[in-house]
Design a protein that fits this description.
GO terms for molecular function: 23S rRNA pseudouridine(1911/1915/1917) synthase activity; RNA binding. By secondary structure, the chain is α+β, with helices and mostly antiparallel strands. The chain has seven helices and 17 strands.
Length: 333
């Protein structure tokens, strides 16, 4: 056993949520950094047992089975640790919750090989390097600020992934959208990759389940602040659903056309709205039952300065608009 390898011995109680899933597909969702072929090798070698017996990759789960996993994982993180001043709002020996600033990329990738959250987590301790994705179990877009939960042990990481799959982590967001969103409601349109613009997602037929609950907080002239709760966590989910409803997020470069501003807004505020540097979206609350201690964990993150300033500007806009009756939209190329 290499000093950088580590052993996972885990017992998983299957719920009815996974009824009908193949065992290899089920484990792929729990170990997203390992290919299905690799997991099939674990099963073939007898490293995965159902109710104490060896199994096959094509075995369908019925619910209520007990899966025992005994595998040796090689260190999977090759990225370099970096010292980073992370804003950690909760931490114990099993997990942490941090407040990610806008502009911080979560994972290294094309154009962002370093300086990511993953690099910063590796810089915290050697133990994080032993975990897939340094303990990251979900993500926020680069220009979305707010809360993320990160595992510090392999057992906790698996259990957090299970909680996300069963929608047992409450994720609440704050956003500012264009237009008057009058009533609370739910969007349940499926989401998939856009047919022609591959960097975008879209509401599509036969996409992945996506459920977004929303509630307006405060109305301004032609803008609304909104509280959003997610049941699912699809890529760009809030941004896509709000756009689909005709209420794109302020500042959203993919779905919101930041140059579209009420023509009646005074010139100074027009510039503020057009130059807002990101989508106006913040993950403000996480709540879940701790997967190890069973303690109820509730973490809140205050709005960052840029969103506070945006709300102040919109308050000013609201006062200025009292003298106007008509609404027009101005486009700037």
């Amino acid at each position: 056993m290499n000093e950088n390898d580590h052993k996972i011995q885990q017992r998983i109680n299957v719920t009815t949520e996974s009824t009908g899933s193949r065992i290899d597909q089920f484990l792929t969702s729990l170990f997203p950094d390992h290919s299905r072929a690799t997991i099939q090798q674990w099963i073939k070698k007898g490293d995965v047992k159902i109710n104490g017996h060896n199994t096959k990759s094509k075995t369908l789960l019925k619910g209520f089975e007990v899966i025992d996993i005994d595998i040796l994982l090689e260190q999977v993180v090759d990225d370099q640790p970096e010292q980073m001043d992370l804003d950690i709002l909760f931490e114990d020996e099993y997990l942490l919750v941090l407040n990610k600033p806008a502009g911080l990329v979560v994972h290294p990738g094309n154009g962002n090989p370093t300086g990511t959250l993953l690099n910063g987590l590796l810089g915290m301790s050697q133990e994080q390097a032993m975990l897939p994705r340094a303990g990251i179990v979900h993500r926020l877009d680069k220009d979305t600020s707010g809360l993320m939960v990160v595992a510090k042990t392999s057992l906790c990481q698996l259990k957090l992934v299970e909680l996300l799959k069963t929608h047992d982590i409450k994720r609440q967001y704050f956003c500012v959208v264009r237009g008057q969103l009058k009533t609370a409601g739910t969007v349940s349109n499926q989401i998939g990759r856009h047919k022609t613009q591959r960097v975008r997602m879209a509401v599509v037929m036969n996409g992945k389940e996506a459920i977004t609950h929303y509630e307006p907080i405060e109305h301004f002239d032609h803008y609304t602040s909104v509280r959003v709760n997610l049941e699912t966590g699809r890529t760009h989910q809030i941004r896509v659903h709000m756009h689909h409803m005709g209420h794109p997020l302020v500042g959203d470069p993919l779905y919101g056309n930041p140059n579209r501003v009420d023509a009646q807004v005074d010139s100074e505020l027009k510039e503020v709205l057009r130059s807002f540097p990101r989508q106006a979206l913040h993950a403000e609350k996480l709540e879940f039952v701790h997967p190890i201690t069973n303690e109820l964990i509730t973490v809140n993150a205050n709005l960052p300065d840029d969103l506070c300033q945006l709300l102040e500007d919109l308050e000013f806009l609201d006062i200025k608009q009292d003298d106007f009756d008509d609404f027009e939209v101005e486009y700037v190329e």
